[in-house]
Design brief:
This protein has 19 helices and eleven strands. It has about 600 residues and is of the alpha/beta class.
Length: about 600
C-alpha cells in the first residue's frame, strides 16, 4: 500500500550536534554578560522608567518583562552545558545491567510495545516490521506486542500475520497509560520499549541504548523523535517562478543572493524536534533531569514498578491519615487506620504509568522523585527511530494543546517542586518546563502593548529617551549573540516565533486547567484532515489587523495631527508591532498550507486501496 510518506523513506536523520568545549565556554561567558545586562535593565525599568500617569499600563508591562527575564534565566541554566552520559557496550546478560542477587544468569529480555487506537492498520504493520528487524549483538529474548485500545479484528489479523503478540482490553480506562499498564500485566521483559503506532525503530535501537543500563540506577533512556516526513519546501526562485514566470525566478534568485537560501513551505508547523531534543533535553543530562517523551524510549521494568509501588503506598498512607487524623486516642487511631488501609488500598488505582494525558513526563516526575532510590534518566543524543509529523494545523494544534494542558495540569494538581527527593538542579529544570507554558500570560501583554500605545498615544515608559536605548539595546544584542552560540547552529527564530504565536493555544490550555476541566486525550491524527483552517488562527489574524491599524493611526496622529513629539515613541512601537506581525505570519501560512499535488494523489491512492 502506498502512503504519502513512502517517497521519504530514503531520508536519513541528522547527526547529533558536535560538542565544542570552546564554543560552550564562549556561550557561558556571553550568557552571563547578557543576564547581568538584563538584570540591570529590569532594575532600571522598575526604578526609573515607569509612567506614573498610566500605572494601569506601565505595571503589567514591566511585570511581564520581569517574568520573561526569569524565564530567560531558567532557559540559560537549562542550556548551560552538555554532559552526555557515557556510552558503554551493550550488555551480554542480565547480570551486567541489574543486581540479580545471586540468581542464575540469563539473556536479557525486552518487550516492544506498539500502542495504537484508531490508526490505519497498514501503517501499524510498517512499525511492526521495523520492530521485528531490531538487532542485538548477543542472545536476547525480544518480543513485539501490539497494544490495541481500539479492539479491532483487522488489527488482530495484522498482528497474527506478522507473528507478533496482540494485546487488548475491555475498556480504555487511563488511556495510553492504562494501555501500558494492561500490557505490563501480560508481559515480563526486563526492559520495555514504548512506541506509538507510527514509531519506526531503527535496527540499532537496542544495540545503542541498552549499554546505559549497565548503571543499575538508570531507569529509562529517551531517544530523539525525528519526523522524517517534514515538508522540504521549495526554493524561493522555484516558488516565485511558478507564480510569475521568469521574472519571479530572477527576483527570487536576487533575494537569495542578499539573504541566503530561502525555502517556502519548509516545515510549516515547526515540527522539527532537533531544538527540543538535541539542545534542550540533551543539556538536561548534567542535572539528571531529561524527562521521558513517550515514543522512542526504553524503560527498566524494575524501576517503573518500584517507583509506582512506593507512590501507591504513600498515596494509601496519605488517604488513611486524612481520615484518622481527628481520632485522639492512639490505640483507636491505630485500629481505625488498620481497618481503613485495606479498603483504601482496594479503592486506590495502581498506576505504573500515571493515568494522565501527559503520562510520560508525569511518570518521569514519579521516578525522579522516588524517596528511596535515586533513579537516573538519559537523553541518548542519536536518533534511533522515525515518526510522522502533523500534516495540518488542526492536528498540530491538538498535539500542542495536549502538551500544554497536560503539563499545566501536573503543575497545579501534583506539583513536584516542593516535595519529594529531587535535587535543586532537577527542580530547576522542571520549573523551566512549567514556566515556559505560563509564558502565554506575559506574551499577551507583549502583543497588546504596542497596539495600546498606537491607538491611545499613552506610553508605558516615562519617555523613550537615550536611557531606554542604553539599557535595552545592549541587553537585547548580548542575548541574541549569546544564544546564537548557545544553540550551536540550530535554527532558532522559528522556535522563538512559534513560542510567541502559541499564545492562544497555551492560554486556552491554561484556562481549561484553571476551570478544573480535565484535559482530554485525543489521538493526534496521522493523516491530513480536510477543510479550511483559517478559523483556527483568528487570534493571530486579529493581532495583525489591530497592529496594522494602530500603525496607520499612530502615523496619522504624528504626521497628520502634528504630534511630532510622539515620533520616537511611534518608531519604537511600530517596530515592536512589525516584529509581532512577522511572528504571527508563519502560523497563518500554516493554516493555508496544503501538501504538494503528488502527495494528495498518493493519499487518494491510499484511500482507494483501503476502500478496495
Amino acid at each position: 500500500m502506498a502512503f504519502y510518506f513512502s517517497k521519504f523513506e530514503h531520508r536519513r536523520p541528522p547527526s547529533p550536534l558536535p560538542h565544542s568545549p570552546a564554543i560552550e565556554l564562549l556561550w557561558q561567558f556571553l550568557v552571563v554578560v547578557a543576564l547581568i545586562l538584563g538584570a540591570n535593565y529590569i532594575r532600571w525599568r522598575w526604578t526609573e522608567s515607569l509612567n506614573y500617569d498610566a500605572l494601569w499600563f506601565a505595571i503589567p508591562l514591566v511585570l511581564a518583562e520581569t517574568l520573561a527575564y526569569i524565564g530567560l534565566v531558567l532557559f540559560a541554566i537549562n542550556l548551560w552545558k552538555v554532559h552526555d552520559y557515557p556510552r558503554r557496550p551493550p550488555p551480554r546478560t542480565i547480570s551486567e545491567c541489574a543486581d540479580t542477587h545471586g540468581d542464575e544468569d540469563r539473556p536479557i529480555s525486552a518487550d516492544i510495545f506498539l500502542t495504537t487506537y484508531s490508526e490505519e492498520e497498514e501503517l501499524v504493520r510498517l512499525s511492526i516490521r521495523d520492530a521485528k528487524a531490531v538487532r542485538y549483538p548477543h542472545p536476547i529474548d525480544l518480543r513485539v506486542h501490539v497494544l490495541d485500545d481500539g479492539r479491532r479484528p483487522l488489527m488482530r489479523q495484522v498482528a497474527e500475520e506478522e507473528g507478533v503478540n496482540y494485546i487488548t482490553r475491555s475498556s480504555n480506562i487511563g488511556f495510553k497509560a492504562g494501555n501500558l499498564r494492561n500490557a505490563m500485566e501480560h508481559t515480563s521483559g526486563d526492559f520495555i520499549i514504548i512506541c506509538d503506532a507510527d514509531t519506526r525503530l531503527f535496527p540499532s535501537f537496542l544495540e545503542h541504548t541498552l549499554g546505559y543500563f549497565r548503571d543499575v540506577d538508570v531507569a529509562w533512556v529517551q531517544t530523539p523523535q525525528w519526523f522524517y516526513d517534514i515538508p522540504e519546501g521549495e526554493s524561493l526562485p522555484q516558488h516565485w517562478g511558478r507564480k510569475a514566470g521568469r521574472f519571479g525566478r530572477w527576483l527570487g534568485a536576487g533575494v537569495q543572493r542578499l539573504v541566503g537560501p530561502v525555502r517556502v513551505g519548509e516545515d510549516p508547523f515547526v515540527s522539527d524536534a532537533q531544538m527540543f531534543y538535541d539542545v534542550i533535553q540533551r543539556r538536561r543530562n548534567w542535572a539528571n533531569a531529561a524527562f521521558c517523551c513517550g515514543a522512542g524510549s526504553i524503560h527498566r521494568r524494575e524501576a517503573v514498578m518500584q517507583a509506582a509501588l512506593r507512590a501507591y503506598a504513600m498515596k494509601v498512607d496519605k488517604e488513611v491519615e486524612k481520615y484518622a487524623s481527628d481520632i485522639k486516642d492512639p490505640g483507636l487511631r491505630a485500629d481505625f487506620s488498620g481497618a481503613m488501609r485495606n479498603q483504601v488500598a482496594l479503592e486506590t488505582e495502581f498506576t505504573p504509568y500515571k493515568f494522565h494525558v501527559s503520562e510520560d513526563i508525569y511518570t518521569s516526575i514519579v521516578l525522579h522523585n522516588d524517596v528511596a532510590r535515586r533513579w537516573k534518566s538519559v537523553l541518548h543524543p542519536e536518533v534511533e527511530s522515525k515518526m510522522l509529523s502533523p500534516q495540518d494545523l488542526l492536528s498540530w494544534m491538538i498535539q500542542r494543546f495536549k502538551y500544554a494542558g497536560g503539563t499545566l495540569d501536573i503543575c497545579f494538581r501534583d506539583n513536584p517542586l516542593f516535595r519529594g527527593k529531587m535535587s535543586w538542579a532537577q527542580r530547576t529544570m522542571y520549573l523551566s518546563t512549567f514556566w515556559s507554558y505560563f509564558g502565554c500570560i506575559w506574551n499577551i501583554v507583549f502583543i497588546a502593548a504596542p497596539i495600546i500605545y498606537l491607538f491611545t498615544g499613552i506610553p508605558p515608559l516615562s519617555a523613550y529617551s537615550d536611557a531606554f536605548y542604553l539599557h535595552s539595546l545592549p541587553f537585547l544584542l548580548a542575548t541574541e549573540l549569546a544564544f546564537m552560540f548557545g544553540m550551536w547552529g540550530v535554527k532558532s527564530w522559528e522556535g522563538k516565533a512559534s513560542y510567541l504565536s502559541f499564545f492562544s493555544i497555551n492560554f486556552r490550555a491554561l484556562w481549561t486547567v484553571l476551570k478544573g476541566e480535565k484535559i482530554k486525550f485525543p489521538v493526534t491524527p496521522k493523516e491530513r484532515q480536510e477543510g479550511n483552517f483559517l478559523h483556527l488562527v483568528i487570534p493571530q489574524m486579529a493581532v495583525i489587523a489591530l497592529t496594522v491599524a494602530g500603525i496607520v493611526y499612530g502615523a496619522y496622529r504624528v504626521f497628520g495631527l502634528g504630534q511630532s513629539h510622539e515620533l520616537q515613541s511611534l518608531v519604537v512601537n511600530a517596530a515592536w508591532g512589525l516584529n509581532n506581525i512577522l511572528v504571527m505570519l508563519p502560523m497563518i501560512r500554516a493554516a493555508q498550507w496544503t501538501p504538494p499535488e503528488e502527495d494528495i494523489a498518493d493519499a487518494a491512492a491510499t484511500e482507494s486501496g483501503k476502500i478496495a
